[in-house]
Amino acid sequence: MFAFEQESRYIIMDPLFPQSPVGFIREKSNVIFRQLLRTRRPFVAEITDAMGNEIFKVRRPFWLINSSIYAEVDGKEIGVVHRRWHLWRRIYDLYLGNRQFAVVENPGFWNWTFSLVDEDDKLLAQIDRNWRGIGFELFTDAGQYAIRFGDEGLRHKFALAADVEELHVARQLTLPERAVALALAISLDSDYFSRRGGWGLPFLIATE
Predict the structure, then answer these.
(1) How far apart are CA 191 and CA 4, in angstroms?
(2) In Å, how far from its chain's centre is CA 114?
(3) What per-residue confidence (pLDDT) applies to 150?
(4) pTM for the full predicted model
(5) DSSP secondary structure letters along 47-99
(6) Which of the two ends of the chain, N or C, has the fewest CB atoms closer than 10 A to its terminal CB?
């Protein structure tokens, strides 16, 4: 069955304040490239606050073997995520400028937790794709992702935050590093989970 590939859109939620979104992500890409190249298509995505003000952009070029995604502020590249080829593992290298600050080595298969660790193998952040039910998973691309940067700020939990486990990290990521981590989450969705061209808005739950 042919599925029409649409531009990806995301809603960013803060679990401490779940009443309204804190930001949005919207892909901009060529409609023909989306249908022909699918998950290998080039695109740019704008990350905005709740009022629609642009914070930064991510740019993902066309790729054949290994994907890359770049985080840019005011047209200047601040960081990049490169996927490293492996037969079954999901490996990503995260850079801020020319300095690698984290790596992800996911064992693959049905493991949907992606841990960012430093050169000493210490945990820095974690991205989880949450199971939303067989109907969502089989017939739509409306996934839900939790990006956890550490347990600071989660001492008092509300609503969505009650479902997010605390995470103890070696250090807090800087804002540019968090932008690169968010770019990684978008790339993960494109590489592994957006394969049906279905409808639905994925959620990104960003926590401290």
Answers:
(1) 17
(2) 10
(3) 85
(4) 0.83
(5) EEETTS-EEEEEEE---SSS-EEEEEETTEEEEEEEEE--SS-EEEEEEETTE
(6) N
